[in-house]
């Protein structure tokens, strides 16, 4: 049996209850086949794949907190410190009721290769909680964040593990967590990224994942004889990634016609009014169903998904497994030329395979959404040198990083005779650096 199949078979038995983790590992390992086969004896002996798929450590903890009525609640906190071969653990925190160990492990595993692709010295980690922030007051959010850090602070630090945001965790939550960390540790180290601009945050971090997604997409389109200008774009999600992806797409001359949240989706044939979406989502923390109050001609749907709309480019920016095979078929039938993932693992494996087979350009999230964590690493650099760079400076570095990532993927895919297969390119390029660092550092 091949080394990859042996490792996958063992993981399937051991982690049968972790479907998202198994999906992420399978997607990476299967596309590494030519690299592993070329070094099979060495990697087998060093148990390299076993070491890469078993986290360095997993921290699970109780998070008790008090709501505004005095009721005590208990949630579970997670931090999976997956791999620090190339730098301190780095990755976001997700607060969503669906969070469990499988989801945090899949995200942490993806993060290893994503962070490697940025070219910056950051390892892979991820954390979060099954806490549901929806409908909670500021005071309740603060109580939860403080309690979460009361335990997590023991395990993080600027050279150890640097968390940031993800679903349900933005500037407000990072501020509360940083404040409590500082109180408990008595130092002002850059232990979080995505901080407020008045206390060590970096310009462009808020926009970085969405902007980076478009810089990557633009590079991929250009290499294949296309351009963003004049394109019709379907975006899913209406959170941090989706909003700034839509903004940059519009700046590059495209028309964004859809967005979604966990209840429904909007179609605005004239082009999404982003100021309205920002007011609904960023200011009121409300529902997209309100969008038709701002734009009466737009449609609001609670059935189906945005992928049924005719578009040239699809940008899934909400959550994992939100673009299925039937959606891929609808996109292809409607003449879509490119799918670029803003979210982590939003496209199912069969949908990815279908899109690639149809010749649709496909950008995997671990490459195309790496702009967020890359800018986090730039925030760490600014904190270390006690300086703040201008918006233009950070934005230029972000664009450069995303274009470099595209070039790395393209090169890795070509080296192994898989030109245009950016999934394989991302996994191979991300893996090569981590593998080399791991082997160099011994057992
Ligand atoms: P936000 O919490 O800001 O927004 C998430 C959006 O996705 C919201 O519109 C939300 O709807 C929707 N959503 C969340 N869960 C579901 C679900 N189960 N079904 C349908 N819709 C859902 O998160 P981000 O924008 O930060 O994250 C979006 C994706 O991008 C995630 O996959 C994340 O891991 C990934 N990512 C984020 C980065 C970052 O820097 N923030 C960096 C790289 C990747 P609602 O408004 O109803 O909650
Ligand atoms: O998935 C991701 O890359 C993030 N949520 C951002 C992580 C970070 O440390 O900025």
Structure characteristics:
single chain; 443 residues; alpha/beta; seven-stranded mixed sheet; five-stranded mixed sheet; globular; binds NADPH dihydro-nicotinamide-adenine-dinucleotide phosphate; binds (2Z)-2-iminopentanedioic acid
Describe this protein's structure.
With 443 residues, the chain is of the alpha/beta class. Helix content is 49%, strand content 15%. It has 18 helices and 12 strands. The chain has helices at residues 3-14, 19-31, 33-38, 40-45, 48-53, 101-117, 138-152, 171-185, 205-223, 240-251, 274-283, 291-294, 325-333, 349-357, 365-368, 371-384, 391-415, 422-440; strands at 57-66, 72-83, 89-95, 123-129, 161-164, 232-236, 255-260, 265-267, 299-301, 313-316, 338-340, 361-363. Strands 9-8-7-6-10-11-12 form a 7-stranded mixed beta sheet, with helices on both faces. Strands 1-2-4-3-5 form a 5-stranded mixed beta sheet. A hairpin with a 5-residue loop joins strand 1 (57-66) and strand 2 (72-83). Helix 6 (101-117) packs across helix 18 (422-440), helix 9 (205-223) packs across helix 16 and helix 17 crosses helix 18. The longest helix has 25 residues, at 391-415. The model has no long low-confidence stretch (mean pLDDT 98). Bound molecules: NADPH dihydro-nicotinamide-adenine-dinucleotide phosphate and (2Z)-2-iminopentanedioic acid. NADPH dihydro-nicotinamide-adenine-dinucleotide phosphate is lined by residues 96, 165-168, 209, 237-242, 261-263, 317-319, 342-344, 369, 372.
């Amino acid at each position: 049996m091949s080394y990859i199949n042996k490792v996958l078979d063992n993981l399937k038995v051991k982690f049968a209850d972790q479907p998202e983790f198994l999906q992420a590992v399978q997607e990476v390992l299967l596309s590494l086949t030519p690299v592993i086969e070329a070094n099979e004896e060495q990697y087998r002996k060093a148990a390299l794949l076993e070491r890469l798929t078993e986290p360095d450590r997993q921290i699970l903890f109780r998070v008790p907190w008090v709501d505004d009525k005095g009721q005590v609640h208990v949630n579970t906190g997670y931090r999976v410190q997956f791999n620090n071969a190339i730098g301190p653990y780095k990755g976001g925190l997700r607060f969503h009721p669906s969070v469990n160990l499988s989801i945090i492990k899949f995200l942490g595993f993806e993060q290893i290769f994503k962070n490697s692709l940025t070219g910056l010295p950051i390892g892979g980690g991820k954390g979060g909680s099954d806490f549901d922030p929806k409908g909670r007051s500021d005071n309740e959010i603060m109580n939860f964040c403080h309690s979460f850090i009361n335990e997590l602070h023991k395990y993080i630090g600027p050279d150890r593990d640097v968390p940031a945001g993800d679903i349900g965790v933005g500037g407000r939550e990072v501020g509360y967590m940083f404040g409590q960390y500082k109180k408990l540790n008595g130092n002002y180290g850059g232990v979080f990224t995505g901080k407020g601009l008045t206390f060590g945050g970096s310009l462009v971090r808020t926009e970085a994942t969405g902007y980076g997604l478009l810089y990557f997409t633009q590079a991929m389109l250009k290499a294949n004889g296309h351009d963003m200008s004049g394109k019709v774009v379907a975006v899913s999600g209406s959170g941090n990634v989706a909003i700034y992806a839509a903004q940059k797409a519009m700046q590059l001359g495209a028309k964004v016609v859809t967005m979604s949240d966990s209840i429904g989706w909007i179609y605005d044939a004239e082009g999404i009014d982003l100021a309205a979406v920002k007011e609904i989502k960023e200011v009121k923390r409300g529902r997209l169903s309100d969008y038709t109050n701002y734009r009466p001609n737009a449609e609001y749907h609670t059935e189906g998904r945005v992928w049924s709309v005719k578009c040239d480019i699809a940008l899934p920016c909400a959550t994992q497994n939100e673009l299925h095979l039937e959606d891929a078929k609808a996109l292809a039938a409607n003449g879509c030329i490119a799918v670029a993932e803003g979210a982590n693992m939003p496209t199912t494996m069969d949908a990815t395979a279908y899109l690639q087979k149809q010749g649709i350009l496909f950008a995997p999230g671990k490459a195309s959404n790496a702009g967020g964590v890359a800018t986090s690493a730039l925030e760490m650099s600014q904190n270390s040198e006690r300086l703040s760079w201008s918006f233009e400076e950070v934005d230029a570095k972000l664009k450069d990083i995303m274009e470099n990532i595209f070039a790395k993927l393209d090169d890795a895919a070509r080296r192994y005779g898989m030109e245009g297969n950016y999934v394989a390119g991302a996994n191979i390029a991300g893996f090569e650096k981590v593998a080399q660092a791991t082997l160099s550092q011994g057992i």
